[in-house]
Amino acid sequence: xxxxxxxxxxxxxxSIIEAKRxxxxxxxxxxxxxDKLYAYRDQHAQALFSSLGRLxxxxxxALLTVIVLSISISLACGFYLLIMxxxxxxxxxxxxxQISLFLHDDVxxxxxxxxxxxxxxxxxxxxxxxxxxxxxxxxxxxxxxFGDAVRALEKNxxxxxLQVIPKNSLEEGQNVETLVENFKQxxxxxxxxxxxxxxxRLQTMIEVSQCAMIxxxxxxxxxxxxxxxxxxxxxxxTRRDEIIIAKLVGATNSFVQRxxxxxxxxxxxxxxxxxxxxxxxxxxxxxxxVEKLSMLYNSSFHLLFMGFFETLALIFVSxxxxxxxxxxxxxxxxxxxxx
Length: 339
What we know:
Layout: H1 2-21, H2 33-57, H3 59-93, E1 99-103, H4 109-120, E2 125-131, H5 133-144, H6 147-151, E3 161-166, H7 173-184, E4 189-193, H8 196-238, H9 240-248, H10 253-296, H11 308-338
Antiparallel strand pairs: 1-3, 1-4, 2-3
Helix pairs in contact: 2-10, 3-8, 3-10, 8-10, 8-11, 10-11
């Protein structure tokens, strides 16, 4: 008994020394937080690349799914670019949306210039141009086709005209209407002319197009969710026995659904990239024809392509749609396994 008691303190001393030599060893199972973080990273990396490998293995199914999703996403992107290019076109049309102020016949050129300088001080006015009686008569002779009849007149019947171009006229039609009413109060102005109905029609067309773009984006997003979800559902049923065995040995729902979520990510990621190529190719095909048409109208209109941040947003949104569609389907399938 004495011999055994002599070794107890020695064993305790050895265990203390061993604990000092290995400070990372704790009484907790599973290692330190850093070890768990590394293990979590390795699990995600394995699920990420294994899901990519399964997509590559099922080339035909994955390819068909990506093509269908790419076409759906490219339709939404193409409509978005159509709206953006239409807005660019309205900037050029804004210069034609001018207010014409016809002055009284007895107003002199000096008074007209003073009125024009006063209007230029208005912060809602972009530019003011004075058209004299002689310039107005010359334009009428050139474009009306009644030059001989006009030259037979003893007196020039045309008044001095001020052409006023307001700022942001297409976006703020109500402000333009208020501006016209203010101009009518001037003593030199006989009457003011502006086609407000044209402005309102153009505004309404742009607003309707934007609403249609939003609705189309929502519908195509739902289509992406459904198609991705159906693809993941088929893969889930293919691996059903494997999942059941994994659940029996203690696999959590997070562990089971992780590779399916990454499969949805890869599907959305590749679909977004392909959609960008499709839209860019379509714009390149149209670019030359549109620029030729623009030159015929003496315009400097150029097609807008998707920018860098818009491309990143496209790929991010398509990837997230793939993940969300996969998550919804996997959750439903896991619930069915419990029942």
